[in-house]
Amino acid sequence: MKDKTYSVDLDDFDRKILSILRHDGRITFTELAEHVGLSKTPCQQRVRRLVDSGVITGFAAIVDPAKVGLDHVAFAEVKLSDTREAALKEFNAAVRRIAEIEECHMIASSFDYLLKVRTSDMRRYRTVLGEKISSLPHVASTSTFVVMETVREAAR
Q1: Residue 143 phi/psi, 5° resolution?
Q2: Alpha-carbon gap, residue 94 to 88, rounded angstroms
Q3: Taking the model in full, what pTM does it have?
């Protein structure tokens, strides 16, 4: 049985808190409360509720990929030979074990998945594609698009 995702009721304060935290997850509760127009304690309670309800799933450092030698980005289209539920679950589980795959999306198109792959350079990407992605369960074919320049990339 599939897990169901339930929507959480958010008011304007919650939405403003989320907007601010998406841009600055290190802001103090005092500053956050001032920005949203609440006192500190109710603001902390709202953030705790957003975390407890799963709206906020975590806090993380945003790393400059170029500064850590991971500025090569490629998107790989993946077509599977089998798209029954068991095959999809097997593919999904295997994708989660490949560190270089930054994102994986099931797509309604002529292919089945779109992968965002981040590596140090084209040589490393070729290795990841040939030894890891192509070896994933049920992969029939792949097609690669190499990013020349990132114009905008959202923080997670």
Answers
A1: -145, 135
A2: 10
A3: 0.81
